[in-house]
Specification:
The complex is a heterodimer of chains A (230) and B (406). With 230 residues, chain A is α/β, with parallel strands linked by helices. Chain A has one domain: 3-Layer(aba) Sandwich (Rossmann fold). In chain A, the strands form two sheets. Chain A has a six-stranded mixed beta sheet, with helices on both faces. In chain A, strand 1 and strand 2 form a beta hairpin. Chain A starts with a strand and ends with a strand. Chain B is α+β, with helices and mostly antiparallel strands and 406 residues long. Chain B starts with a helix and ends with a helix. Chain B has a six-stranded mixed β-barrel, surrounded by four helices. Chain B has a two-stranded antiparallel sheet with strand order 2-10. The chains are: A alpha/beta (230), B alpha+beta (406). At the A-B interface, helix 2, strand 6 and helix 3 of A face helix 1, helix 11 and helix 16 of B. The structure holds adenosine-5'-diphosphate (ADP) and magnesium ion (MG). The site of magnesium ion has 3 residues of chain A, from helix 1.
Chain lengths: 230, 406
């Protein structure tokens, strides 16, 4: 079974005067261990699609299954709990709680999952080591660079041991050095732990690393290529 | 929970200046309110104390006397009645009194007066009337009377002169008597100084009805603890039966209580204004704290944090500010209030005269009753609860995707 299966997804935003058709019939399957980029010009529907895949929003039409669970059938509370245990998130910004240290931020999601304190501490430390900022564990986000903050966000996303991780333009605010480092870390996590990553990006450097590139335009998938050996 | 509290605490700490400013608004409102209320209640308590020292906590009359205070509603004292009152452990003292109206004349001057026949010793112990004598001495002989300075002035009398009293006694008899002015008193109340003649109870009884001893218009009861008012009233009523009425100071001083009530409302309006300012301070701060972090909060909900937990952060923030404000406000205002309780501010000028008319010492003691403090604390606390309401509603409803976009 695929981790994600999206079938006939349409999304229309009704909030504005003129309804916006952000997605117009998307079918997509994501398998375990993928390292996939969803690319397309600004306004093409990448964020909308990721939000739906991540259970942050529901499609107007169509169904989205995550390992067989139809997200449409969950209440909003169940959905929050579902996300907590199944989906990791790395956003473009505002990822971390500014008053908590890198370690506390990482531990926070484990606390939400009710992992015992000792275990939390251990896992958080390990993950911060894995993303290469163990030495900054007791720094608050404000004392970290943008790239370091994103690495903490990746550590936190991994901490919850999700089925897959969604990252919407995670490198948009980063310089090329930090971008490379972040991509390298995510790629390594993907190789080591078979963590599944799905990005939305229009950053060429991210596309270069992706093993699968799904191209979207005007709310439709217009291309889907796989690059073995990356 | 601990982490949520930690987040709230650090959020406040992170924006120290704003937090301090908000807490300062709470401190200011609380201490001003406390000061004001303590002053007001102190004044009320003082008025009531002065009133009660005259009226007693309650009085026992012949039924109907309160409505129609005439000598015809007097009653004869009986041992059982006295026993019934004295046997109650809550009762501190009982003062018998006979009051009746009469004309007082000296040479060419005549004036209507109230004769108050009192148990000289016990009355003095309660009211220290002997301390108010400015000329002559206190009641001793059976034809002694005491006049107020205003009345003496009107009648052009001095100590040792002979006063003639003429009036209607009990059961329509004509009463008259000749008395010696033993002393002249000066009380704070002008009314009393110009219209009351004190004499021994026995003398007054002989004046009003010489044919049977023991005529009284009231038995004034003082309690050890004013809080027992209504239980004691009930007990006395039960013991004495329907021939007697028991009137509490709350009825006797109802005019004063009405004045207090009106004044209290004006005080409450002032408080309302103060508290709106404080509540608005807390409200806007907590709202800002919530709104400026809505993107972070949207991330938190996205990764799987229940909204309930965000709500707790907001509530903690509110409570930390308001509790700090309350504590510091109490710490600042209480010493002053307690000081002014122990050392009341003296009042001078016209105000002082008004006080004296009501037979109240012209000072402003502050109240330190628990309810004064407690009510302010409870109000500030509930106001802060209410200020947290909007953020709480926002956090439990906000659309995370919209929060990301704006
Ligand atoms: N909440 C919304 N209300 C109305 N229109 C929206 C909303 N979110 C996105 N859109 C519109 O939907 C389209 C797709 O947006 P989005 O998914 O954000 O694209 P991308 O992430 O590829 O830039 C755009 O035209 C955008 O303006
Ligand atoms: Mg986007």
């Amino acid at each position: 079974m695929s981790i994600i299966e999206a079938k006939g997804i349409y999304k229309t935003y009704q909030e504005t005067k003129i309804p916006v058709n952000a997605l117009n019939g998307v079918d997509l399957k994501i398998e375990e261990g993928e390292f996939t980029a969803i690319v397309g010009p600004s306004g093409s529907g990448k964020t909308t699609l990721l939000n739906i895949l991540g259970g942050l929003d529901l499609p107007t039409e169509g169904d989205i299954f995550i390992e067989g669970t139809n997200l449409k059938q969950l209440s909003s509370r169940q959905l929050i709990d579902f996300r907590l245990h199944n989906i990791g998130f790395v956003f473009q910004a505002y990822n971390l709680i500014p008053v908590l240290t890198a370690r506390e931020n990482t531990e926070f999601i484990l606390e939400l999952q009710k992992v015992p304190k000792k275990e939390r501490r251990k896992q958080a430390t390990q993950l911060l080591e894995a993303v290469g900022i163990a030495d900054k564990a007791d720094h608050r986000p404000g004392q970290l660079s943008g790239g370091q903050q994103q690495r903490v966000a990746v550590a936190r996303a991994l901490a919850s041991q999700p089925r897959f991780i969604i990252a919407d333009e995670p490198t948009a605010n980063l310089d090329s050095k930090s971008t490379n480092e972040l991509l390298e870390i995510m790629a390594e996590m993907n190789r080591k732990y078979r963590s599944t990553f799905i990005f939305a990006t229009h950053d060429q450097r991210v596309m270069d690393k992706a093993r699968r590139i799904v191209t979207i335009d005007d709310g439709k998938i217009i291309g889907d290529e796989t690059f073995e050996g990356r | 929970m601990k982490t949520l509290l930690k987040i709230a605490w650090r959020n406040l700490w992170r924006n120290r200046r704003r937090t301090i400013l908000t807490a300062a608004a709470v401190i200011l409102a609380l201490s001003l309110a406390l000061f004001m209320r303590s002053m007001q209640f102190g004044w009320y308590e003082q008025m009531i104390r002065a009133g009660v020292s005259q009226s007693g906590h309650m009085q026992v009359h012949d039924t109907g006397y309160q409505a129609n205070q005439s000598i015809d509603r007097a009653f004869f004292y009986r041992e059982e009645t006295g026993e019934a009152l004295h046997s109650l452990k809550e009762v501190k003292s009982v003062l018998p009194e006979l009051q009746t109206f009469s004309l007082a004349s000296y040479k060419k001057q005549t004036k209507g007066v109230l004769i108050a026949g009192i148990d000289a010793k016990r009355y003095d112990k309660q009211n220290n009337l002997s301390g108010k004598i400015i000329q002559g001495h206190y009641l001793s002989g059976s034809d002694d009377v005491l006049l107020g300075d205003k009345l003496a002035q009107f009648l052009k009398m001095k100590v040792g002169d002979t006063l003639v009293l003429l009036g209607q006694g009990y059961r329509g008899i004509t009463s008259y008597g000749i008395y010696r002015v033993a002393g002249i008193f000066h009380l704070p109340s002008i009314e009393m100084n110009s219209g009351v003649v004190y004499m021994n109870l026995k003398t007054a009884q002989d004046f009003a009805y010489p044919y049977q001893p023991g005529l009284l218009t009231s038995l004034t009861v003082f309690l050890k603890d004013p809080g027992d008012l209504f239980t004691v009233k009930k007990e006395i009523e039960q013991k004495l039966g329907p021939a007697y009425e028991v009137i509490t100071w709350k009825t006797m001083l109802s005019d004063m209580l009405q004045t207090i009530k009106v004044d209290n409302i004006s005080g409450q309006i002032m408080l309302l204004i103060l508290y709106i300012i404080a509540a608005f301070g807390i409200f806007s701060t907590v709202l800002m704290m919530t709104m400026e972090k809505r993107k972070q909060y949207a991330v938190m909900v996205s990764i799987g944090m229940e909204r309930r937990k965000l709500v707790w952060v907001s509530i903690f923030e509110t409570f930390i500010i308001s509790l700090t404000g309350i504590l510091i406000g109490l710490l600042l205002a209480s010493p002053l209030v307690f000081y002014l309780h122990a050392h009341p501010i003296p009042i001078t000028g016209e105000m002082a005269k008004m006080y004296l008319q009501f037979n109240i010492a012209p000072v402003l003691p502050f109240s330190v009753k628990t309810h004064v403090f407690l009510s302010q604390v409870v109000i500030v606390f509930s106001l802060s609860l209410m200020s947290a309401l909007y953020p709480v509603i926002y956090l439990s409803r906000f659309n995370i995707l919209n929060a990301f976009r704006h």
